[in-house]
Amino acid sequence: MRVSVPDLDGIDTPLAGVIVTFLPYDRDQILAQLAEKAGSRPHTQELDSLFRLFRTPYSAYVRASERARTTRRLHDSLLATRGADDAEVRALADSAARIDHELMTARATLDAVRDTVEPAIARLRGCARRACARRD
């Protein structure tokens, strides 16, 4: 059996050494029973749409953050062994500066989206909580 999960770019990536356990129950039936017991979930579609708006800039920020971390680590390692005058070290310093700029841009985009969707998410979550409190 092959098990895979999406990587930071959303591409399915195989996982090695994963143990898969099959359990003898009907997952869908259990989920249906839990949903029935919990009652309605107000504003699910609206919340899903807002979370979807957040996903793309968040993924871009995570990718840029990982590239920045990896580039800085490689730069620092080469700097320690080769010195600042090495051409590859200078090239990595230039790359790190460019990637840091991409990271700042991705962060600004993420913050702008968060500022836009967060009030609506908080409002819808509050409404859902009040509905749950009235049921109890």
Give an overview of the whole structure:
With 136 residues, this protein is mostly helical. The chain is built from three helices and two strands. The protein has a two-stranded antiparallel sheet. Helix 2 (44-82) packs antiparallel against helix 3 (87-135). The two termini are 45 Å apart. The mean pLDDT is 86.
DSSP strand count = 2
Low-confidence stretches: none
Could you give the distance between the termini?
45 Å
How does the overall form come out from the CA principal axes?
flat
Helix content: over 70%
The main β sheet shows up as: 2 strands, antiparallel
Question: If you compute it from the alpha carbons, what radius of gyration comes out, rounded to the nearest whole angstrom?
Answer: 23 Å
Q: From the helix content, strand content and strand pairing, which structural class follows?
A: mainly alpha
Total helical segments:
3
Q: Spell out the helices and strands N to C.
A: EEHHH
Question: What is the mean pLDDT?
Answer: 86
Strand content: 5-15%
Note the main attributes of this structure.
single chain, flat, mainly alpha, two-stranded antiparallel ribbon, 136 residues, 3 helices
Map the helices and strands.
Elements: E1 3-6, E2 12-15, H1 27-38, H2 44-82, H3 87-135
Antiparallel strand pairs: 1-2
How would you sum up this structure in a few lines?
With 136 residues, this protein is mostly helical. The chain contains three helices and two strands.
